[in-house]
């Protein structure tokens, strides 16, 4: 059980963020009303997604410098899990936007940016499918992964700051810390973020281990 | 005479606009107090039903994950 | 032989190859002319927003067509020969520079043809021209690396489009905004941020390409 402490931590953090997120005090704001609590559930999806993509890039770099196949497996599984979190973030965001902004897909740079980032990683998976030979597939997809990552960072973090956005913290909108004046939300929010990131990493390692087992089983055949 | 008239008019407009401003401020403040925050659901305690439902879901999913984790570990040991 | 010298020779080689056949230039110019003409037949007159959007769409597809061939036009054997005599950094750098030259030429041609056939409503022509130049440089830097990646897979053109579009969209958003500013003739200081961001992205792309290409080239 000693190695499992962070998995328990993930479960405890997410559960406690559910309780505190639904029951804790939040600032009273028009339009948002109670939906401000979505900050605890929708935003951590994006943090987990970025963490997983970062892990994937790190493992791609590791693969290119060492040539060990398991690093490539880790990079793919991180992307797979990241895409899961990306879709969850998009779906929850669309539900929330439908209530507060009046339509599920307002023309917002962050929304468009995350959709394009999804396309980037789907393209990564298509590229992998197009290549037959294992070593070559690992190498070329690692190159594309590293090549696309800085542009994705520009897309998600720099472009929304340049343009008007409905999201907080960009284009003259008030930032998160302005809304949360009493710092009620901050501890709960960070608990939720850490909990979900750990959960994402956990799912990713599970998939990675399963993939390694599959590979071993295939080798014996 | 004309000057006095003008100044009178100006003060009138000034006070009117000030009045209008205070009126709008009052409107905004009442709006803030009337923001709907599901107080009924909270005071009746039924919010805990929602909390417990979501908590059950989350804990169930985590137990499931732990279960998968254990089975993977067993497979890894068999190799 | 120093890197710069190698790059110089390789660019001169590419230009000479192109000059001898003129196949790429001619086909792309023909492509641009026919697309512009089809658009003209379809739209007759356009307002400013559509004018801008159409221009970039035409340029985008022309550049994808032009650059996707940059690693496949020469045979495998000749590439093997280059591999044995030069460094991969020199090859990617020379390809990027050659594509920048090609794209600059192409985009100027496109711009001239486009503004002759459609009426040119640009408010600040110099800024718009700068946007076109920046656009062609950005297309060249991004697509060169992507075409390098896609040339390693069998079916080139589809993979090229799939890989290139998500990567180019952020740049295209910036370019559209910059050129819209130029169209409206806004104050130039208001487009500073876009220009700086575009240049920064280009610098990042070129450095990442230089770092990654040696791994791609190894075969």
Q: What's the SSE blueprint?
A:
The complex is a heterotrimer of chains A (221), B (79) and C (219).
Chain A: H1 5-23, H2 39-66, H3 69-100, H4 109-130, H5 134-162, H6 176-179, H7 185-220
Helix pairs in contact in A: 1-7, 2-3, 2-5, 2-7, 3-4, 3-5, 3-7, 4-5
Chain B: H1 2-33, H2 39-43, H3 47-78
Chain C: H1 3-21, H2 23-43, H3 48-67, H4 76-85, H5 88-117, H6 125-151, H7 156-184, H8 192-217
Helix pairs in contact in C: 1-5, 2-3, 2-5, 3-5, 3-6, 3-7, 5-6, 5-8, 6-7, 6-8, 7-8
Characteristic terms for this protein:
heterotrimer; A: 221 residues; mainly alpha; 0% strand; globular; C: 219 residues; 8 helices
Report on this structure.
- The complex is a heterotrimer of chains A (221), B (79) and C (219).
- Chain A has 221 residues and is mostly helical.
- Chain A has one domain.
- Chain A has seven helices and no strands.
- Chain A has helices at residues 5-23, 39-66, 69-100, 109-130, 134-162, 176-179, 185-220.
- With 79 residues, chain B is mostly helical.
- Chain B contains three helices and no strands.
- Chain B has helices spanning 2-33, 39-43, 47-78.
- Residues 12-30 of chain B have low confidence and may be disordered.
- By secondary structure, chain C is mainly alpha-helical.
- Chain C has one domain.
- Chain C has helices spanning 3-21, 23-43, 48-67, 76-85, 88-117, 125-151, 156-184, 192-217.
- Chain C starts with a helix and ends with a helix.
- Chains A and C meet through helix 4 and helix 5 of A and helix 6, helix 7 and helix 8 of C.
In a few lines, what is going on in this structure?
Chain A contains 7 helices and no strands. Chain A is mostly helical and 221 residues long. Chain A has one domain (34-213).
- The number of distinct helices of chain C, counting runs of at least 4 residues, comes to 8
Rg value of chain B: 32 Å
The amount of helix of chain C comes to: over 70%
* Secondary-structure element order of chain B, N to C: HHH
* Span between termini of chain B: 107 Å
Largest sheet of chain B: none
The helix/strand class of chain C is mainly alpha
Average of per-residue pLDDT values of chain B: 69
**DSSP strand count of chain B:** 0
């Amino acid at each position: 059980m000693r190695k499992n402490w962070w998995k328990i931590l993930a479960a405890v953090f997410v559960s406690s963020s559910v309780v505190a997120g639904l029951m804790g005090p939040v600032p009273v704001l028009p339009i948002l009303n109670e939906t401000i609590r979505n900050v605890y559930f929708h935003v951590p999806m994006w943090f987990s997604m970025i963490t997983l993509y970062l892990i994937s890039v790190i493992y791609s770099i590791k693969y290119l410098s060492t040539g060990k196949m398991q690093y490539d497996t880790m990079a793919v599984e991180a992307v797979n899990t990241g895409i899961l979190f990306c879709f969850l973030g998009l779906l929850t965001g669309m539900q929330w936007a439908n209530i507060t902004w009046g339509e599920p897909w307002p023309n917002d740079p962050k929304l468009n940016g995350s959709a394009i980032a999804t396309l980037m990683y789907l393209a990564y998976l298509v590229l992998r499918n197009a290549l037959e030979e294992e070593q070559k597939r690992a190498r070329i997809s690692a190159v594309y992964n590293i090549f696309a990552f800085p542009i994705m960072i520009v897309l998600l973090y720099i472009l929304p700051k340049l343009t008007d956005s409905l999201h907080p913290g960009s284009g003259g909108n008030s930032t998160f810390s302005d809304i949360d004046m009493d710092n009620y939300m901050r501890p709960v929010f960070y608990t939720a973020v850490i909990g979900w990131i750990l959960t994402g990493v956990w799912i990713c390692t599970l998939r990675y281990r399963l993939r390694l087992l599959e590979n071993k089983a295939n080798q014996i055949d | 005479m004309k000057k006095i008239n003008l100044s009178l008019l100006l003060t009138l407009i000034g006070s009117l606009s000030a009045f209008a401003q205070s009126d709008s401020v009052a409107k905004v403040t009442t709006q803030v107090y009337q923001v709907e925050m599901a107080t009924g659901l909270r005071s009746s305690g039924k919010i805990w039903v929602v909390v417990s439902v979501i908590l059950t879901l989350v804990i169930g999913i985590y137990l499931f994950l732990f279960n998968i984790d254990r089975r993977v570990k067993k497979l890894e040991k068999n190799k | 032989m120093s890197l710069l010298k190698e790059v110089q020779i390789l660019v001169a080689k590419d230009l000479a190859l192109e000059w001898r056949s003129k196949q790429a230039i001619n086909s792309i110019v023909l492509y641009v002319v026919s697309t512009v003409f089809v658009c003209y037949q379809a739209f007759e007159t356009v307002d400013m927003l559509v004018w801008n959007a159409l221009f970039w769409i035409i340029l985008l597809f022309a550049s994808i067509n032009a650059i996707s061939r940059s690693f496949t036009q020469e045979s495998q054997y000749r590439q093997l020969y280059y591999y044995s005599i030069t460094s991969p950094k020199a090859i990617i750098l020379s390809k990027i520079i050659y594509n920048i030259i090609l794209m600059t030429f192409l985009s100027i041609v496109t711009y001239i043809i486009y503004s002759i056939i459609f009426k040119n409503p640009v408010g600040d022509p110099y800024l718009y021209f700068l946007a076109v130049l920046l656009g062609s440089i950005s297309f060249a830097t991004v697509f060169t690396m992507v075409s390098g990646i896609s040339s390693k897979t069998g079916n080139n053109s589809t993979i090229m489009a799939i890989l290139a579009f998500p990567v180019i969209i952020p740049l295209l958003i910036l370019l559209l905004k910059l050129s819209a500013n130029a169209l409206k003739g806004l104050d130039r200081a208001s487009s500073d941020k876009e220009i700086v961001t575009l240049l920064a992205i280009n610098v990042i792309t070129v450095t990442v390409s230089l770092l990654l290409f040696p791994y791609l080239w190894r075969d």
